[in-house]
Design a protein that fits this description.
alpha/beta; seven-stranded mixed beta sheet; 15 helices; 19 strands; 39% helix
Length: 509
């Protein structure tokens, strides 16, 4: 870890993966770090997760891995990777014209690179365990951010005596508003620098908006999601389907996916318009299974029993998908927001957590580049001024990048739910991978490989892929023109086109 000759007091709001990694970066540079989390200790299995589901499997790719690597916490990355499952590609499920079930593998990358399935709770636990070992870090659970003055750098928190059991995404009515005299005790905390990493419904962002002229855009798409579970085989407790793939049952306007877990089960998700969920609800058990079998062949009863399928659909919440864009991400030298607090996105590119972890690396790259951790007395500006410059530079670079991956994630839903079965999609994928593999000097790569297996800025990925698309259209167009010309030339040599050939020859005269 880095050693620093001076300290600043950093408040991190949110102890999820992004907040925990930000705290590690700050503590590693010598800051005094205090982490405040709304919920109970996230390492406690009884703590209610943000979306009320039992387990959340995430796709960990190069951006997230690289960001944890740069935290310089010995053993952290290996501990996490050792509890992950490599996924080498997609496995597309469907039913053939003859009624037979089929599986079609599609590799993610022509060079054999892969993403990893990780359990969010495990990832969070590893990060918090490392934080807890650091002498300049304190963790405060059951603390709700109720206010902040970013000019005086003071924050107020409610100390809750009972764990939070509700969440804005899925209100249960179980935590009614208490009279003022019964409200939890409120404390004030001063700070030099606040990092808000408290999710899509961010309190840090809400309070920062009172000071910064923050442009904010929020969109709920017409798609809900519900979690399902595929158990291991009863015969030998092995995986029921291939653990080397992210499994997709594409359905056009909806889809069903399955991601492997370390216990050899699969965490599955149904994504569909609200109307589809509404239509499924009142169906009889037989019609319910029939609808699933028609749209997602091979799921029920092959992988999930009819009884379990209906029970999971009924008991697990049907949750919305939220997309958020805003800017700026900071207020002067006092605060910055990261992860979903700054740019919540739909999950269809598997980049939400990876982008949030990358936020941390990029932020501290700017803090380092602006000498925030340089304590030389020869520097002409104050540390506060240097920090404000770093945060401004971070916002300028990161805003278009976050907007790009937000848009890419929205567009990728169409690819996953329908495009993976399209001949045009397969042809372009094959063409781009072939150029990348056999002509590497051209720097050609698929969009997915650029996003998931590199650290190129998201906005640059979007531009590079658009440029490749224009080249492909030009090459294919020229090839079509050339083929048409050759065909016409061949036809002109036939007697049937003698009048046309004579006409062309007369033109030459």
């Amino acid at each position: 870890m880095r050693n620093a000759n001076g300290k600043q007091k950093v408040l991190v709001v949110g102890a999820g993966p992004v907040g925990a990694l930000a705290a590690l970066y700050a503590a590693g540079r010598g800051d005094d770090v205090e982490v405040y989390e709304l919920r109970d200790d996230l390492r406690d299995p009884s703590t209610t997760p943000l979306n009320f589901t039992k387990s959340i499997n995430l796709a960990l790719s190069e951006r997230g891995i690289n960001s944890m690597r740069h935290a310089e916490c010995e053993g952290l990355l290996n501990a996490i990777l050792n509890e992950s499952i490599p996924m080498h590609g997609r496995m597309i499920h469907g039913r053939g014209k003859g009624g037979e079930l089929y599986e079609e593998p599609q590799l993610y990358d022509a060079q054999g690179r892969y993403i990893r399935a990780v359990d969010r709770a495990m990832l969070n636990k590893r990060l918090l365990d490392y934080l807890e070992q650091m002498p300049n870090v304190s963790l405060h659970f059951n603390h709700k951010l109720t206010g902040a003055d970013f000019k005086k750098n003071i924050a107020w928190f409610e100390q809750r005596t009972t764990p939070m059991i509700d969440h804005a995404q899925n209100p249960t009515g179980s935590s009614p508003v208490k009279p003022d005299k019964d409200r939890p005790e409120e404390i004030s905390v001063d700070f030099d620098f606040m990092i808000g990493a408290d999710g899509a419904h961010s309190a840090a962002r809400f309070h920062m908006m009172k000071f910064a002229r923050l442009a904010y855009q929020q969109e709920y798409i017409d798609t809900l999601w519900c979690e399902f579970h595929i158990n291991p085989k009863t015969s030998d407790s092995s995986f029921a389907i291939s653990p080397d793939h992210l499994h997709i049952w594409p359905g056009g306007s909806f889809m069903f996916i399955a991601i492997p877990s370390m216990d050899k089960s699969f965490t599955c998700t149904l994504f569909a318009p609200e109307s589809y969920f509404t239509a499924l609800g009142p169906l009889s058990p037989e019609d319910f299974v029939s609808s699933f079998s028609e749209n997602f062949p091979g799921v029920c009863p092959e992988l999930i029993s009819p009884q379990d399928l209906r029970q999971q659909f009924t008991e697990n919440p049907h949750l919305p998908l939220l997309s958020i864009k805003c800017t700026p991400y900071h207020y002067k030298s006092s605060a910055v927001i990261l992860g979903d607090a700054a740019h919540a996105m739909v999950p269809f590119y598997g980049q939400g957590m990876n982008a949030g972890l990358e936020d941390v690396r990029v932020l501290f790259d700017f803090l380092d580049a602006h000498d925030v951790y340089n304590f030389s007395p020869k520097l002409a500006t104050s540390r506060k001024e240097r920090r404000e410059g770093a945060l401004n530079a971070y916002t300028v670079q990161r805003t278009p990048d976050a907007a790009a991956i937000n848009d890419l994630a929205l567009r990728n839903y169409q690819e996953m739910s329908a495009g993976v079965k399209s001949p045009l999609y397969r042809m372009r994928k094959w063409l781009e991978e072939s150029v990348s593999l056999y002509l590497p000097s051209l720097g050609w790569s698929t969009q997915y490989s650029r996003v998931s297996f590199g650290n190129q800025r998201y906005s640059e990925v979007e531009k590079a892929v658009a440029r490749q698309g224009r080249i492909i259209v030009t090459v294919v167009g020229l090839g079509f023109v050339g083929l048409t010309g050759l065909t016409a030339f061949g036809l002109m040599r036939r007697d049937g086109l003698r009048p046309l050939r004579e006409f062309v020859e007369n033109l030459r005269k």
